[in-house]
Specification:
With about 250 residues, the protein is α+β, with helices and mostly antiparallel strands. It folds into two domains: about 10-200, BirA Bifunctional Protein, domain 2 (2-Layer Sandwich); about 210-250, SH3 type barrels. The chain is built from four helices and twelve strands; from the N terminus they run E-H-E-E-H-E-E-E-E-H-H-E-E-E-E-E. The protein has helices spanning about 25-35, 85-100, 170-190, 195-205; strands spanning about 15-20, 40-50, 65-75, 105-110, 115, 120-130, 135-145, 210-215, 220-230, 235-240, 240-245, 250-254. A seven-stranded mixed beta sheet has the order 1-2-3-7-6-5-4, sandwiched between helices. Strand 9 and strand 10 form a beta hairpin. Helix 2 packs antiparallel against helix 3 (about 170-190). The longest helix has 19 residues, at about 170-190. It is globular, with a radius of gyration of 18 Å. The chain starts with 14 loop residues before the first strand and ends with a strand.
């Protein structure tokens, strides 16, 4: 069970294991969880042979980029987990900001947690969870950041840090991510700090007030991006004073 007692999170709470190659850092973390790992474990790989994005999409994972997954065990009560993707996006944004030079194109978050530079995707985040046989809940945060390699993506314009004059290596970027994630998870505080996290997310959000289309599993809906509510749901203004809350979907601008 997750304790509701406040305990500060620090860098020393996390471990890191670096691999040369693996099928998927998310799969590696899940295997560790099933084997009894206590969590707060980062797994990175120089290359993935079976990387994946949302909805089972292939995530091309050649050497030169950052592929990292964080295993969390019972990170919050289930009713507060919905805000975690916002916190993760804030942490990744903070880390990438550290390695971009002054004057770079805008670094923003596209709902819920894609990171864009100049409206082009440079990072994808995949959050997966599983109830373990011993009653614990394993949550894996997979993060892929285009550092020097820019895979083709038919769905979105893409970019990489090198195209924006960043000389950071994947290892240097991960050091910033390691620190930023500890900082933001401490502020998130098992979901109790959602007000602070949503405020930080809104400050770096892309496209609030613009016309967007949201692709759902069964249909597409267009409207004006009215922001997010206090739980992180996308608020879509579909006209006539109607606001539709959306929990998951692919957002396209214009």
């Amino acid at each position: 069970m997750v304790s509701d007692r406040r305990r500060r999170i620090s860098l020393g709470d996390f471990r890191h294991e670096g691999l040369s190659e693996t099928s998927s850092t998310n799969s590696e973390c899940l295997a560790r969880a099933r084997a009894g790992d206590p969590g707060n474990l980062w797994v990175t790989a120089e290359r993935q042979t079976g990387g994946r994005g949302r909805r089972g999409r292939l995530w091309v994972s050649e050497r030169g980029n950052l592929y990292a997954s964080l295993l969390l065990i019972d990170p919050a009560p289930m009713e507060r987990l919905g805000s975690l993707p916002l916190a993760i996006a804030v942490a990744v944004h903070q880390a990438i900001r550290q390695v971009l030079p002054p004057g770079a194109e805008p670094l923003e978050v596209k709902w819920p947690n894609d990171i864009l530079i100049g409206r082009k995707k440079t990072c994808g985040i995949l959050v997966e969870g599983e109830q373990l046989p011993d009653g614990r809940y394993a949550l894996i945060v997979g993060i892929g950041i285009n550092v020097s390699v820019m895979p083709d993506n038919p769905l979105y314009p893409v970019t990489c840090l090198r195209q924006h004059a960043s000389a950071a290596s994947p290892e240097e970027l991960f050091a910033h991510l390691f620190a930023a994630m500890a900082d933001v998870l401490d502020q998130w505080d098992q979901g109790r700090g959602i007000a602070e996290i949503t405020a930080r997310w809104r400050a770096i959000a892309c496209g609030i007030g613009e016309k967007i289309t949201v692709n759902l599993p069964d249909r597409s809906i267009s409207g004006q991006f009215a922001g997010i509510d206090d739980k992180g749901l996308l608020m879509l203004d579909i006209g006539a004073g109607r606001i539709m809350p959306i929990a998951a979907g692919d957002v396209f601008f214009g």
